[in-house]
Amino acid sequence: MKAPVRIGIVGLGRLGQRHARNLAWHVPGATLAAACSPVAAEREWAQANLPELALHSDYESMLKDTSLDAVWLVTPTSLHTDQIIAALRAGKHVFCEKPLSLDLAQCDRVIEESARFPHLQVMIGFVRRFDASYRDAFNKISQGAIGRPFMVRSQTVDKNDPDGFFVRFAPTSGGLFLDCSVHDIDLARWMLGNPRVTRVFASGTIAIHEGLAECGDIDNGVAICEFEGGRLAVFHASRTSAHGHDTQTEVVGTGGALSVGHNPRANRVEIFDATGIRNECTPTFFERFEHAFLNEAEAFVASLTGGPATGLTLDDAREATRIGIAMRQALTKGQAVNF
Amino acid sequence: MKAPVRIGIVGLGRLGQRHARNLAWHVPGATLAAACSPVAAEREWAQANLPELALHSDYESMLKDTSLDAVWLVTPTSLHTDQIIAALRAGKHVFCEKPLSLDLAQCDRVIEESARFPHLQVMIGFVRRFDASYRDAFNKISQGAIGRPFMVRSQTVDKNDPDGFFVRFAPTSGGLFLDCSVHDIDLARWMLGNPRVTRVFASGTIAIHEGLAECGDIDNGVAICEFEGGRLAVFHASRTSAHGHDTQTEVVGTGGALSVGHNPRANRVEIFDATGIRNECTPTFFERFEHAFLNEAEAFVASLTGGPATGLTLDDAREATRIGIAMRQALTKGQAVNF
Amino acid sequence: MKAPVRIGIVGLGRLGQRHARNLAWHVPGATLAAACSPVAAEREWAQANLPELALHSDYESMLKDTSLDAVWLVTPTSLHTDQIIAALRAGKHVFCEKPLSLDLAQCDRVIEESARFPHLQVMIGFVRRFDASYRDAFNKISQGAIGRPFMVRSQTVDKNDPDGFFVRFAPTSGGLFLDCSVHDIDLARWMLGNPRVTRVFASGTIAIHEGLAECGDIDNGVAICEFEGGRLAVFHASRTSAHGHDTQTEVVGTGGALSVGHNPRANRVEIFDATGIRNECTPTFFERFEHAFLNEAEAFVASLTGGPATGLTLDDAREATRIGIAMRQALTKGQAVNF
Amino acid sequence: MKAPVRIGIVGLGRLGQRHARNLAWHVPGATLAAACSPVAAEREWAQANLPELALHSDYESMLKDTSLDAVWLVTPTSLHTDQIIAALRAGKHVFCEKPLSLDLAQCDRVIEESARFPHLQVMIGFVRRFDASYRDAFNKISQGAIGRPFMVRSQTVDKNDPDGFFVRFAPTSGGLFLDCSVHDIDLARWMLGNPRVTRVFASGTIAIHEGLAECGDIDNGVAICEFEGGRLAVFHASRTSAHGHDTQTEVVGTGGALSVGHNPRANRVEIFDATGIRNECTPTFFERFEHAFLNEAEAFVASLTGGPATGLTLDDAREATRIGIAMRQALTKGQAVNF
């Protein structure tokens, strides 16, 4: 057995805790050796719930720990690019939650800096690529199951939060498309063979959360994306569903079609009662992608210890941001954006 | 075009009205020429809702109408055999709702009498044989889609009626198995190639309607039926479902399996709300077999005017009764009944 | 019982024959009294398969039959408007297959002429409004089941015809959107409460049938349609599916969502074999809307004999054409079309 | 954090390796400290694939390791009872794969011996109790979702192995019911509140594997089980399915019903092609219960370190064997077995 990869996690919010537990207990070949959070309560959580590890309140101090091989960033998007670059300069591999950045120039900075450290890996966490069902769909398509894939329809739909908590964060989220649809954009590019985008149109509405109007955001949006070679994608993003988290994707080819998540079932239970026959829905992306987060961590750690590359590049992350920005533009202008 | 078959319907209860409407408006080659009911309100309904036709309060009087080619019996089971025999003697073809009779000797009487009138047809309405989905399943099996079929699992489940209206009719219904499972018995025999039954075991319970205990009946029952050649059937009948009418049947073969009605969906609508993702259920057998009742009438009328035989024989009807009686016996004795 | 409505059908192609059979055998209150086709073989089919009726090779001659109350047009789109106007002037009610016309000015001519004959009804056959599942969805929405509906996603997907037979008719079809999506446009307007359209964008591709390029048509298209009040629709049309005819529609509201046809199942049969668990797909719109065509005829005939209005107006038909034309324009220009 | 539970695994066949990986990498609070197998290749697998641990070829020698807190038995059924008793006498907690034994007297020996060591836990691995969907169903039922549960229908269906490899092991497997249906028996008892069994009937057939006749076994079986209080269970077990591993269970109550695994879908992918719309099936119980095996290990380890009891008792395991034996008897005799 090889020496385990020593990892320091940064950010221990809800999603950070999920990553921390995975790295601590479930990833062969990984040791969660350090955790960093400016929030005292989060450090206390780490002490109480994780195996013994070094705790830092300051990112710079953690980077000085030369025993760490990699950092695992689950921090606000606005910090991503600076933190990635600092980690690279400190000689660490980097896992960073999506999106890379809301700003193309910032994406480019990371790409340039990363090129200077070819022995260090940087992966942005497009977690759906590690979901067993999406992986199965991708493999089937690669094997020709649907002929030539030419269209993707993909949606990210979140359960409505009546409190509209997220409205307060809307001004810094980049808007609905950059916050939610980047996943779908990345999936579409992956499934369609990474074609070059040529035109984007988008539309949207505020169905419930009027407060979004202030910052020009929407709670439901749709977009069409044209790629070279006559390939197409249609996206839908929503924050107002009644039934739960409903991520689904359809890939259409010349010889068939595949869908992932056509019914966003919570599990294998069906209920027969006076309302009919029903299944419950995955409540949030947490439950939907619970196992994918683990696969993602395993894949990244494996890639650092001689395993296969994960396939995800920084260019993929940049392209998702670029298309997301164009969708926001099209929405604002009411006109298609040509590339 | 041939002269239409002139039909007289007998019994205009809820199901009788359905048959009457079909014969009046929807069956090419048929003319609903007469209707018979001892109930004045039913005759009034006929006058108001059907095309012009002769009305009778008395069955004997209707049989005297020599212009009628056939009678259509939607009457209480206890009347079936006498009415069929009278119709045959009057020179009429007969359609009769299931079951033929609750008594084997009565079935035999009809079979004997029918043999004396080979030019007259008698069909018992096992309506499921005319349902498009069951028909499709049967055809696929005939074409070898599941290899050699060796097991059927079939259920008839009715929505609970909190008033327990049916409890009052339990004493004359023949019990749960003879009232409900005859359909499943007939389906199993049809799908398995009409094998000879060798042994039956049954069990049951009163889940809700305690009043059934008085006449030895149950509101939920299960049964196992062994046929020659290692073929098997498992039946379930219930009067207490919360979700609606749920008829389903699975046929298992050596090379695959087919199911009909795995989800008893009311239609093509799905509802996404706080309870999850659901479809409504067919409320009663009326909605489930609405089109099958029409197909059945079309098939019977076609068989009288040169079309193919319907495939249903009086022996099929007798066998369903025979097995149903054995299931009731097994339930009472707590032991298997051997044939 | 009232005197039946006497109807003359015009056009006895595949769909015309379906309508003729329905009117001849299945619609209470209707008598199919005449049929008109310039094709001798079609008139022979009528003689062999329908009850006795008057046969015409010429539309003008049929209109002279003063015993007819209504005409039933199942003719090429290019003939619709002239034939409707002639029928009105001859004092007949009109049923006409969709679309009313590919040309807005022609639509307006019919609307103007129709206004001169307020006692005569003209209905364009948007058959989906008479499908039991769409009707159920509409009723549920009207009763508030999903809160305020604000988005419709709807598709018309046809099985690929490897011969590309339809390519030859593409030049006169009006293109994919006017030929197929008019149904979805009409559904969206119906479900969303007939809002005014404000902007349209469309895109498309030729996935298989290169021959369409000649006349500027596509075999797969997508479109976004913005309506007043922040309402949205997304459409998809395709002629290249591998699995069959797949019409589906989702209506999203502030309190839930409804879908019709989420799985385009052919019937209630499921097959369990080495390929997994599957159901077959409705092969064509014929099987999918078999019962809806009958409901449509019953509803139109009922509306002529004192029953409720069908709810479909000529303005609905005009609007479907208007939006379909704008979608075609947007596709050609690569830019949104504003109204 | 408490000191981890030190575990020694016994048996490293396919299922043993799964358990070993879980204990080695995925169970918080556990350390896989030893492994025992008489097979050299299995010990080599352990050395190559697991973290450093002590390897034993002999069970007695492993029991002498006083640092071990528990043993984990994934060994042939015939060894279970002796190995459990030896472990208890060596002061170890025991996890043991199902079934406890094929012999009631052996079950009783373990129960008696276990009573002498009240501080030591023995759990038999009825893995389905730890599956997220079965757990959800149980919780819903406990909360009254279906009223009073009175009937369970449950099946264990395995994909046909054309080689009939398992036929060779049939003589020592205890037969289809003891090998497969014990899971369903345990589920039924769990869901119905552990009622006392009163009568059993069973039937079965050889659909494919004629070689089973020699030892009186079958490849498809059905059984009815009556419990006190009018509760019922119906079981089905098969080794011959074409579509894969299909475990499903339905619990019927007076106010509704729940099913687990109604469609044994492999994952969230659906395929639309010329065969229709389909999903693949879970190939074996391994994939179906992958996460349940992990949950089971976590639950058992948690119960040893102050967590809640798992709820599974040795009496549960004995009862599953007792009912399974009665089902085999009923099959042989062709008569119901009364308790």
TrEMBL record, chains A, B, C, D:
Residues 5-115 form the Gfo/Idh/MocA-like oxidoreductase N-terminal domain. InterPro entries: Gfo/Idh/MocA-like_OxRdtase_N, GFO_IDH_MocA-like_dom, NAD(P)-bd_dom_sf. Belongs to the Gfo/Idh/MocA family. Keywords: Oxidoreductase. It comes from Caballeronia mineralivorans PML1(12). Residues 136-258 form the GFO/IDH/MocA-like oxidoreductase domain. GO terms for molecular function: nucleotide binding; oxidoreductase activity. GO terms for biological process: NADPH regeneration. GO terms for cellular component: cytoplasm. The keyword S-adenosyl-L-methionine does not apply. This is Oxidoreductase. The keyword Coiled coil does not apply.
